[in-house]
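We treat protein structure as text, and this decision shapes the records that our systems exchange. We quote a single record here, exactly as it is kept in our systems:
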Amino acid sequence: MNHSIKSIRPFIGAKNFEVSRSFYRDLGFEEVVLESNFSVFKSGDTAFYLQDYYDKNWIENTMIFLEVDDAERYYNELFALNLTEKYGVKLTPTRHLDWGSECFLHDPSGVLWHFGTFKK
């Protein structure tokens, strides 16, 4: 197969669609409303879809890895947003491993985001 991939856009759900929309805008993603219950959130060439749909088993087993330039800096910026106070979410500090570094953030519905940097 010859893959000429332009992007990959995961679909995630939301327990409370309006709260999740606000959360992702606070993270700095640009929202494009596609329908009243469906939006795409973009940052540069990276994007994901948020839908007003919640299934506990699906959401709590969804993980997304977002590669960033500096996981430690990214964690500090996430911490400064006071997301835990504003949304009641869990933010886990950066851990440094053999392959690189990552921090973790659960969104308001339970989706687990990994923000990581690979060693070169």
Q: What stands out?
A: The radius of gyration is 15 Å.
